[in-house]
Amino acid sequence: MAGNWLPPAQLTGSGLPVLQPGEVECSLLPSVDLLSEDNPTFPHLKSGLIILTTHRLLWVQESPTSRNPTAIFIPLSSITQILSVKKSIKSMFASPRFRFQASFGEKGMVVITLVIRGKGDVDSFVEKFWETWRKRPWEVNSGSEASGSGYGSGGGDGGLAVRMPVVGVAGILRKEQEMWESTDKSLQDAFQDLNALMGKAKEMVMLAEKMRAKLLSGSTSQATGTNDEEIGTKEEMQELLLSVGIVSPVTKESAGALYHQQLSRQLADFAKLPLERAGGMINLIDIYCLFNRARGTELISPDDLLRACSLWEKFDVPVMLRKFDSGVMVIQSKSHSDNEVFNRIRSMVTTPDALRAGITASDAAMTLGIAPAMAKEHLLAAEGIGLLCRDVSPDGFRFFVNLLQDVDADDIFLVKDYGIYHTWVKAISAAR
């Protein structure tokens, strides 16, 4: 739809833009048209989400049910002039309009208009747009990458207005540095090693994001160009990536009214690796701890997490929120199959020892590789479909294979020469 004018933007599985190294989201506005009133050949994009970052202006089609939404971007470096700013945006038009001029190489200069039909904070968006474009953070960032210094560490008039959020290892170290500098500037010499570590930490966060994207894209492919000696095992890589943090966490300041919507999409992307490690299902409390650890100091509340998970029903994402009959809530991959878990439980309860003494939630947890609370929920679900029977004693719950499904209803004293019932009789006889 955008033709040759605007390059396509890459999106994650949940519909969030894939950020470039060092790129950070600054502000969002819903229901925005993008067009050029002076050039009829320029594409007319209707009702999309505008995302301002430190490097680009992205337009993403607002269609939760679409599997391949349209997404384009305009590099902020191509913008040559801002024609309408905060003070002049409110005018006689029914919908506020924001205009700027961009250069498209051989195609020349084009005046682009954003028609804002939504209810976002237009003034705040325009102010951040102006400040970001004026400070040119994409140039500062590229220079800091080349020199290995931390993001936004320059001083004086060249300081960066749009700074990377305080996340992960890099964010915590940067915040500690700023505290010491405000207390006593004479301590800067003593923290030279810390400054160098901060620069390396930022590079590691960006590297981890690249490796995470590569790992997710290549998880179903068997042919890869690297070996275990180069990147380690897949399990080790997943553990490292979960520990580094999220480069650009969604915040209320940047997302505004779209905070929970964008948080829901980012959480869906983040949950892929933990779900793979947990076998397709993870406790809501565990994902809350992992997600907050990855966000660094940009913590979210349990209510924010629950609200973000509840929005997955509106989006085409590969994860879902599930609530067991007992009230326990989990995040589950849509590809997760309960039948596979039930088959493993069936194998557990039909061993000679389990036929005689049954199994507990702890036994199931060790075999399934999950937490005991989750294992108990699986055992209760298996009981609900008639696979297991429960025995309650002072020692707690024990689960046995359901022999009633193998008993002849016409003659309950008839012992079959096959099936679970026959295997149980042999196991009990051998124990005497």
Largest sheet: 7 strands, antiparallel
Q: What is the chain-wise order of helices and strands?
A: EEEEEEEHHHHHHHHHEHHEEHHHHEEH
Mean pLDDT: 77
The N- to C-terminal Cα distance equals: 77 Å
Q: How much helix, percentage-wise, in residues?
A: 40-55%
How would you classify the helix and strand content by structural class?
A: alpha+beta
What is the number of helices? Answer: 16
With strands numbered from the N-terminus, the spatial order across the biggest sheet is 4-3-2-1-7-6-5
Radius of gyration: 28 Å
Global morphology: elongated
Strand content: 15-25%
Number of strands: 12
Low-pLDDT residue intervals, each spanning 5 or more residues: 143-162
State the main characteristics.
432 residues; alpha+beta; elongated; 16 helices; three-stranded antiparallel beta sheet
Write the layout of secondary structure elements.
Layout: E1 25-35, E2 45-53, E3 56-61, E4 71-75, E5 79-82, E6 97-103, E7 109-116, H1 122-135, H2 137-147, H3 168-183, H4 192-217, H5 228-231, H6 234-244, H7 252-255, H8 259-270, H9 272-277, E8 281-283, H10 284-295, H11 302-310, E9 319-323, E10 329-333, H12 338-349, H13 352-357, H14 361-368, H15 372-384, E11 388-393, E12 396-401, H16 419-431
Antiparallel strand pairs: 1-2, 1-7, 2-3, 3-4, 5-6, 6-7, 8-10, 9-10, 11-12
Helix pairs in contact: 3-4, 4-6, 8-11, 14-15
Verbal overview:
By secondary structure, this protein is an alpha+beta fold. It is built from 16 helices and twelve strands. A seven-stranded antiparallel sheet has the order 4-3-2-1-7-6-5. A three-stranded antiparallel sheet has the order 8-10-9. Helix 4 packs across helix 6 (234-244) and helix 8 packs across helix 11. It starts with 24 loop residues before the first strand and ends with a helix. Residues 143-162 have low confidence and may be disordered.
